[in-house]
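ARCHIVE CARD
Drawer: 12
Card no.: 0347
Subject: one protein chain, sequence and derived structure
Cross-reference: see card 0346
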Amino acid sequence: MERQHGLSYGTNRESRSQGTWSVGLTWERCPLWALGTSLSQDSSCSLELQVMDQLESLRLRDLITSHLISYFTILRIPCYIQDLEGSNQVQEAVRWLVCYSSPAAELCCETFTHFMEKGINCEFGERLSRDQKDRQLAGLPSQEPEIILELYNSVIEFLAGVVSAKQLCSPSGLAPEFFRLNNQKCLQPQGSMPEYLEWLRSITLSLQLPPVVLPQKTSWQCTCSSILKYVHHLFGSHPSYPLLHCQVEHLLSQAYCHWWTRDFGEQQEPSGMEVPWDVIICLCIQQLLQTWSPPRQPGTPEAGEQQGREIQVCYFKDSLREYCLPDSWENTRLKTRREMLQHEKEQAL
């Protein structure tokens, strides 16, 4: 057996051979492989029995049952293809390979900061913005904080999986025909690739936010105090914390004034539903991305990190399409749409 460019094939240099029988295999979302075996004319067994024996040895049907491969086919390729029959058999084998081979995956490379900002904006920011507009049109309060945080944290977990996928452990082991690199300046990590990917995963997950803990049936003043404590817990040690503190206080004051100008009936003070959770959490995320710096990369001096802006990440572009929304967000969006329809019906009356 010989190996070249990710394909395994067999050749037989004996003049009395019947040729090479090629077995084409495909894995889902993985490169396609071709295996070759030579069958001898001198064997006491017929060619059909030899083929069946080879199939039994390769255990191809067991591989399909175990979902390790998707398909296989058997084609006879002669040692010499000068005649028309040999050429046709080779063409048939190539057509099968082309039919079942997946398109080349695009391997992207960019800075960690740009990757995270783009991913958070696409999967979290745009969805939250649409939800804000829909709820405002329906006259609904802000989305609940636990729902927003669960969406954000699930996006961070998804992005962590993209940049630390196991397929990236040895991209040089892939045949070049199976992927395209969008940036030839992709930096190679120092040290072990698995350790580097695990480090990337850990620093990405460090961008998650903890849940907001509020006491049950609390007053407006206690609610505001809990929110300010939450912000202080996250960013109290950063020089920009006083500005963030003032911004959150201003939002809470605006919410109180907005409640006061409405007809609030017998209600003595606003409830927690008046808190603009979506805006406050977005401010926290913005502050986190601006002030965050990763731990030291294994095998490099800490001064070389430059607050994570020079960290390079590689990922397969198609993997960005695999994000699945949390059930809580999908259920909340369905509820919001029903409330919007109810609001439209009431407005039409």
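Annotation on reverse: The CA atoms of residues 20 and 289 lie 58 Å apart. Residues 1-18, 26-32, 171-178, 303-309 have pLDDT under 50 and may be disordered.
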